[in-house]
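Tutorial, part two.
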Amino acid sequence: MPGLENYNGHYCESQYEYAFIGFLENEGWQYLCGNNVSRITKRDVLIEEDFKTFICQTNPDLTDNEVTQIYDSVRLVGAESDFATLHKVYGWMVDGIQFTPENGVTKMVPLIDFDISENNVFKVVNQLVVEYTNHGQKSTRRPDVLLYVNGMPLCVIELKNPADVNATVYNAWEQINIRYWRDIPHLLRYCPLACISDGVKTRLGTVRTPYEHFYAWRRVNDGDKISTLPFAETETMIKGVYSPKRFLEIFRDYIYFQDTIYNSDEVEIVCRYPQFFASRLLKQSIIDSVVSKSGKGGTYFGATGCGKTYTMAFLARQLALRCTDIPEIGSPTIILIVDRDELQKQGAKLFTKSTEFLNLGEVSIVKDRAQLRQELGLRQSGGFYICTIQKFCDRKEDKIGLINDRQNIICFSDEAHRTQIEHSKKIQFSKDADENMKAMVSKPYAKVLKEAFPQATFVGFTGTPIAETYQTFGDEIDRYTMDQSVADGLTVSIKYHPRIAKVLLDKEKVKEIEEYYKKCADDGATKEDVEASKKAMSSMEMIIGEPSRLERLAVDIHDHYISSCATNPDRIQKAMIVCSNRKIAYSLLKKFKEKYPEWFVEKKALDGIAVTEKELNKLKPMPFMAMVASVGSNDEPEMYDYLGGVKNDKRSE
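Running the prediction step on this input gives:
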């Protein structure tokens, strides 16, 4: 539709805006010019006629007065903050609003029909003038495009002229995130979603999403080939997100708010396209598995940065709310199994704040399997449990055996390639197994888990699937590759640049080594012993940790880092150095400290970086360079103290 100058009798300077509207019309949205929206004042942002028409058609038992009461409740909604109001209204939109009619029987009145999209009124409105008061003086804002469903603005869209090199999607984001929240929050309290576009880049987010987390939508349907061409973003976004039926699906189950008590954090997230398609496909695979009793819910291959934890959250909500018509599932119990404490903490950080979103009831961290056995025995449905795989160690004195044989238990296995496989290696017991649960299984995890939950369905999430992964969890259901992650800006591309720091030993050191081996031979070491030891020495600290080599290495790393940052100032200037052991790492750190002491001065911010006083109060003084490692009880005092001693875990964190 580019080149359009006269649209429905209304001249518009921005051709792209009307081209965008034209695409939306093709998907089923009705166009309405903002000037033609009937309202009492320009502060009003609801379309009263559409709202009341929907309520009357879906609730014919309500009187006109009762419909007006419901409309006024939505129009005059408020809470302790603008964000809390947004969260509250979103809950009404998804679950319905509680209302007590004149007959006295309280009921939930739906504001949107998510099951039959044709029952809703979809309108795209442009250039709606929204009035606000600025220091006692009336002023206005005019969002480019608003998407209305049943008279409520659910999405705000800001567009920038593709022909203007100075108008970017970042400018569009600033308008929503800064100006609109500052000036017209009474509009945004109804708009969970936001879209920004300049014709080349078209990105989806929420009205509280940071700019860097607005992403393109690169698939319309399952199995579509991913296109990373910039000009394809607009069409794919409109077809993949804004066709009415798809829009309602995303709106209902793929917008995440933390529990109400955490509203002060102002967290609101909308899914990215890999999360959306993966959770939909996995849901169907799980349904098929539960019904057929195969126990294999499928494998999801997701590269680093794809957001597997949120994929699990979206999937869990789908299983909790959209499978109630399947008797074998009903309201399932979900167990998230991870293979290390860090992942358990990461999962807990999200899921323990998501009880309202998940709709499964209690979310708890499993301390031991006795607790899990007891709690699962007390419930027939619901519940979300997070535990490490070590909880399923098959101890001699405490065999796993059966924990629960319900069919509606779904096990999500994170990092499924590593431990939850049929042929995982046996690991010896630790003496303190009863105290800290660090003992490992004496037979493969997958077999132990199958004994514990014989009727459960297992789903694997991994970034590096292997053959055994598919044997345990079933076929690959969906994938998000590293190439796609890089193209979407989620992952930095990996480039290999070989840099060799030669090992040069002085003559005295060589002589010392030769004399050592001669003494070994004199003491009775065989020729084979000596040769094996010499071979091992090539990777020992006498070679790799040779002081002059570490010094050259420090200089080379320093110079390479400085030059790389200088030539690419937009790069995130982080670097990580990995060493063969902790002792060598500490020796290398000391070389850096000798040559570049300025890197070890603790500061709250780098010199030349503008930081507000409020930000400074939140920041802790840190050196530019530091070593992160576990601590050993036999470490030399200097390194032991540097690594924090008994407070090592807290220091590392």
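The two ends are 54 Å apart (CA to CA). In part three we will examine how such features are distributed along the chain.
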